[in-house]
Give the backbone structure.
Amino acid sequence: MVSVGISGMGSYVPPKVLTNDDIAKIVDTSDEWIFSRIGIKERRVVEGDACTSDLAALASERALEDAGISAEDLDMIVLATSSPDVPMSSTAGILQGKLGAVNAGAFDLGAVCTGYVYALDVGARYAADPNYDHVLVVGAEVYSKILNWEDRTTCVFFGDG
């Protein structure tokens, strides 16, 4: 078995904070109820036209910098998301263009909450193949645009990042 490793990491969350008190103004809940059951005090949400590939690009640029490689060095991009930019195109392909990863293949992996875990496994399998030197694995979501903010059973859980 070939050994692989993580050579760089990066993250990004949007600056806008949505607190539990903010959500309590929309649905019948409270900061105390959400925190005692879920452990969340706040979440981040995008503003304007920001989309999943925008967040993924910012996190990816930081990961590439941390790894000391350029986007042109990438051989494959695996993007875990269940909130694609558009329904009929790969968000990983859009990310590939934003990064300038002209030598990389790119595809989305959709498995909702477990998506990044599966993407990391798939990425490691690519990295173990001698044909792939650098594999970028990304998890990014913009749930704020698709959530029903009047459904207390779901809106308290999710943010963007």
About this structure: The chain has a mean pLDDT of 97. Residues 25 and 74 are 45 Å apart (CA to CA). The chain has two domains: 12-50+142-161, 69-139.
